[in-house]
Structures
1.
Amino acid sequence: MEKVSYFQRAIENGITRPSLVQATDSKEYVLKARNEEGTSGKTLLNELIGYRLGKLLDIPIPNLKLLRLEKEFIENNDYYRDIGAKPGICIGSEYLKGNAKVNPVILDKASNINEIPGIILFDQVIMNNDRAENDGNLFFERKTKRIIAIDHSHVFTSDIWDIGQINRLNSTIPSIVKNIDGPVYKYCSPFINGNSPFHYCKTKYDSITLERLDEVFSNIPSEWNILEEEIIGLKEFVWGQIQQIDEILEEIKPHFSYWKGSV
Ligand SMILES: Nc1ncnc2c1ncn2[C@@H]1O[C@H](COP(=O)(O)OP(=O)(O)OP(=O)(O)O)[C@@H](O)[C@H]1O
Ligand SMILES: [Mg+2]
């Protein structure tokens, strides 16, 4: 596994206390490490599952690599010592140049507005309620002008779930996010237009079998301390949501006024 080899700077606006680093593969990453300010193994699991599932569904998402942050590196770094970073396996999101604050003017410049419905449906499937109201979780990549979905730390409604909460989530399938009328989704609304705007991305869910979902939920670093029953519960939730894509679309349709015709 590649290691964190150089610390560039702390990223100020992140609740998970991310940092910009270079790794032994010479690439730059936005690093999320477990720390004493609330970033846990569950936060990192959320990111990893969001990434793996997003890749299967062709969601525009930065490449992600698991990176090792060594104890000695933390001891020699003021920022990591301050946040109580824990050594071990971290999430590295490949650094893109661009802008993380999305607004209608930026969306108008985007080259991939056709991929926006897919991001919104994906948010429902994994219950990511940190996009509709947070204007910092759609990224505009300068070079390609693409809108990229970042930050899956708060999927499954949060990163403080336990088995009780997962069971409750499972009893509410099909679920959609509570902030479906949030401002960022409102900015995206004009791009969810015409007949069957979700048709192209709905078909992607047909290719997800239980075996592929097993792969998404396998090889989780044991040091993140995720319980087997939690993995099983989350997998059940995602599978249940995927089986009910049409019902999810029916639920979100009234919130997107440019969408005509059926789901
Ligand atoms: N792959 C990336 N390339 C470039 N910048 C990134 C990337 N991933 C994250 N960032 C930057 O780091 C910031 C924080 O990242 P992210 O939103 O994932 O963290 P967070 O701590 O969960 O934030 P939030 O405050 O939204 O909860 C983003 O707003 C963005 O500016
Ligand atoms: Mg964020």
2.
Amino acid sequence: MSLDLSTEAEVTWCPGCPNSQILVAFRQAVEGLVNDGKVELHNIVAGSGVGCHGKISDYLDVSTFNSLHGRIVPTLTGIKLANPKLNVVGFSGDGDSFSEGFNHITHAARSNSNITVFLHNNQVFALTTGQATTTSPKGFKGGTMPDGSINEPVNPVLIMLVMGATFVARTPASDIAKTKEIMQAAMMHKGFAFVEIIQPCITFFDTREHFKNAVYWLDAKHRKGNIDYAFKVARMNTDEKVPCGIIYQTEKPTFEELV
Ligand SMILES: Cc1ncc(C[n+]2csc(CCOP(=O)(O)OP(=O)(O)O)c2C)c(N)n1
Ligand SMILES: [Mg+2]
């Protein structure tokens, strides 16, 4: 059965923004899971943070919530704790969860809250017109740092592994079919699922060419629960090659079960 998950809200992302590809992938992911009987539509909650990415909740005809900047993750944890039947997913930005909300995402991973976080990593504060976030590369030039950012970037995949996330993946927004599959796997995972989505900002930090050439897919047979392999993948220099796919998956009791 085809599900129409669109809304009447006008899509105001820049024409060509990969956020639209993430939106399509998620709609397809939900449609597939609902049609396969794996999740009921009324049990899906899709929250978002503040930033361009955050508009996604306006374009999804499911139960949604738009949080304060950096606060989507604890909001989702609260929703899941109040009603564990819900399938709770959040859309966050690199600024949202690795700058303002860094403390929240790390602790949600540590406690293995049974939620899913999709990180729209465009390596920039896009909505506020192009300042450096924690994931911007050293030397990144923006309005507030015309001579280039002086800090080393953080690596979201590595941080999530260190903090104990039980599902960690990376996918490029440009590959809608693969992103959909990974979203479905993340939403079906029991425990904290984190997906870094490479989402070049075509207006303030256009990295499309780099990622088009650098992305490659991991061989799935190595991944299951192999933390040494996952750390090796996470530490790879993404200036050269960008490994994508499910990097790590394991099982642990969830925060909600333990509470
Ligand atoms: C506490 C707080 N600090 C700063 C802001 C201003 N602000 C709004 S959106 C935004 C940028 C968001 O960047 P990111 O999370 O990477 O999302 P993107 O726009 O790149 O999708 C900022 C800094 C705010 N709304 N609240
Ligand atoms: Mg951003």
